[in-house]
Amino acid sequence: MSIPKFQHYVPRFYLARFVDREGFLWVFDKAEKRTFKIKPENIAGENRFYDLPELDKYGAVHHLMEIQFSGIESEVQKITECWLRQVKEQGHIEIPDPNREIVSLFLTLQLIRTAEYRTVLLQFVRMLKQNGDLSASYDAESDAQGLHCALLWDDDTVKKIREKIRDCIWIFAFNSSGCPFYTSDHPALVKSSDHKGWILGPQVFDLGMYLVFPLTPEWIIYCKDREYWAKLSKFDQTVSPVQFTPDMVNHENSGQIGMCRRFVFSNSSDFRFAQEYCESEPYVVDPNRDRFQELPPR
Fold first, then answer.
1. What is the mean pLDDT of residues 70-82?
2. For the packed helices 144-152 and 115-130, what is the interaxial angle rounded to 10 degrees?
3. What is the rounded distance in angstroms from the CA atom of residue 236 to the CA atom of residue 244?
4. Mean pLDDT across the stretch 175-182?
5. Which of 88, 157, 214, 246 has the most CB atoms lying inside 10 A of its own CB?
6. E strands, 159-207, in order
7. What is residue 288's predicted lDDT score, i.e. its pLDDT?
8. Residue 142 gets which letter from DSSP?
9. Which residues, other chains included, contact 220 with Cβ-Cβ below 8 Å and sequence gap of 6+?
10. Which of 139, 132, 153, 138 is nearest to 52 (CA)?
11. What pLDDT digit, counting tens, does each position of 120-135 carry?
12. pLDDT (0 to 100) of residue 200
């Protein structure tokens, strides 16, 4: 199996759902305030992002994690394509337990596999060092790749997040407003129960939280804490009756802008809202911002 040097932390199949008619992904670079277009295979990744050369001495290939991601992504691509056909034709989705398990794992990993989350990890380690919980001599920056991969391979952590997402109420929503959902280089987001703040992805155990993940420019999935949102149980695996307005869409888009590392993606070159949001919330474009602070939707 040929493994490309450029390794995606947002899958190509997923990005391809946000391209324009010519197959290009439109990109807003919030750091440089510029817009450009690109093919999905050439963005949302880095060279050797998951490689661990030390695996070679144990007889395992150093790109083992990339191989594992490819296997999961292949399954999720098929499953979600089936879902999108079902919602368009039937208004509800039949989700067998094995498929729910697979997609829950995918969403769990998408929360913590990105370059933005690697930055979160480094900030957390710095906090531990400042509190005296880690040796002052530990150089997290030089160990960032190994630290990140260790988290992704931590069965206990991944399993707990996966089970939480699996047991949520899964509601699909259709956007017919003409204003497309954005996605980004950190697309799986978590919102607080009061809808007022985007919070760190792994805080899926907060009471009332819900995960927000745009599937296409027209479709989005919400995974809502089953205990807090019990009254919504009847909508599990169905399409929400709520009709989106452009303001409601941009409420969701604000999360993609605020929580991403740098790049916001769309099938349209119109990023006026992204530009306005960055101007009104300059904090979101600060590379040294505190990732542990909630960001308000707009």
1. 96
2. 110
3. 19
4. 97
5. 214
6. 169-174, 183-184, 189-191, 198-199
7. 85
8. G
9. 172, 173, 175, 181, 212, 213, 214, 252
10. 153
11. 998 888 888 888 877 8
12. 72
Nearest to 103 by CA among 187, 162, 149, 44: 162
Per-residue pLDDT of 9-57, as tens digits, reads 999 999 999 999 999 999 999 999 999 999 999 999 999 998 877 666 5
Beta bridge partners of 222: 171, 212
Our count of domains for the chain comes to 1
Beta-carbon count within 10 A of 80 CB: 20
Mean pLDDT, all residues of the chain: 91
DSSP string, 205-251: TSTT-EEEEE-SSSEEEEEE-TTTTGGGGGGTTEE--PPP-HHHHHH
CB 267, CB 16: distance < 8 Å? no
223-244 pLDDT, tens per residue? 999 999 999 999 999 999 999 9
Question: What angle, rounded to 10 degrees, do the helices at 97-112 and 64-90 form?
Answer: 120
Q: Does residue 108 fall inside a structural domain?
A: yes
- 129-159 in b/e form (b: 16+ CB < 10 A) is eeeeeeeeeeebeeebbebbbebbeeeeebe
Least Cα distance to 68 among 40, 111, 105, 16 occurs for 105
**Complete edge-to-edge strand list for the sheet that includes strand 198-199:** 198-199, 189-191, 210-214, 219-224, 169-174, 238-239
294 in a structural domain: no
| Gap between the Cα atoms of 196 and 173, Å rounded | 19
Residue 220 bridge partners (DSSP): 173, 214
Q: Given a cut of 70, is residue 108 above it in pLDDT?
A: yes
Read off the pLDDT of residues 158-170 as tens digits, 9 standing for 90 and up: 999 999 999 999 9
On whether residue 159 sits in a domain, the answer given is yes
Secondary structure (3-state) at 46: strand
Token readout for 108 is: 């769990």
- Residue-range definition of the domain harbouring residue 166: 6-281
